[in-house]
Amino acid sequence: MTSLAARQVAIPGRLEPTNLDVRAGELVALVGPNGGGKTSLLRALARIEGAAGVVAIDGEDLDQAPIARRRRLLSFLPASRDVTWPIAARDVIALGLDRRDDCRIDELISLLELERMADRPVNRLSTGERARILLARAMVGNPQVLLLDEPLSNLDPYWVIHIIEVLENIARSGQSVLVAVHDLAQLSHFSRALLIADGKVQMDEAPASLTASERFEEVFRIRPANGGWTIKR
Ligand SMILES: Nc1ncnc2c1ncn2[C@@H]1O[C@H](COP(=O)(O)OP(=O)(O)OP(=O)(O)O)[C@@H](O)[C@H]1O
């Protein structure tokens, strides 16, 4: 069943009109060169910046949904880890909920091993620690669709693996997860990958066939070499 249905979503000059359907339980990667339009697509789907078009989740038009309902339908994790407020990390997680639910917040604190930092001011945590707190905020409301902009950046290898497992579990539970990533080695964990460049979805395929394509090499200006990648000259 389609969970997210986007029709003609666009941001002038940054994202061409785009249609996208994502099923419940899909874990979708967004890849593409810097400036290609990954963040713009995620922001357009999250209905930030007055993007054009229509986004419906389980048939409900996001633009018509009251704020509380929207939070049940979708959450968006920005790529920026900047948080300047000196508030406790657990209170930042609570911002993802309409009504405070300490049991649910504690669940996330335990899942993401945040116990030691939960009561510290979030602006005094390291970048990777803040990344986990902000991810917890995006997850805490259990929305039907999660839009995550580079959630794996700034994380050490343990946390990259752990959070990929968390995202796989979220998808398995029936939520839809769209994730902007840069590390091509992470693509194998996704069921589907969108290649985004020049403000347009250029390809929409299984990750293995995407990375094996000529279009992929052209767009990224790289080619396979020695089990990895090298610059295509
Ligand atoms: N606030 C903005 N106002 C105007 N143009 C913007 C704005 N933010 C981004 N852009 C432009 O929109 C285009 C797409 O940017 P976007 O941030 O969506 O790319 P991206 O694929 O997420 O890139 P990256 O991998 O570098 O994060 C780029 O040309 C960028 O310069």
TrEMBL record:
Domain ABC transporter: 4-223
GO molecular function: ATP binding
Keywords, sorted A to Z: ATP-binding, Nucleotide-binding, Translocase, Transport
InterPro entries (UniProt xref): AAA+_ATPase, ABC_transporter-like_ATP-bd, P-loop_NTPase
Keyword hit for Ion transport: no
Domain of life: Bacteria
Role, per record: Part of the ABC transporter complex HmuTUV involved in hemin import. Responsible for energy coupling to the transport system.
UniProt protein name: ABC transporter ATP-binding protein
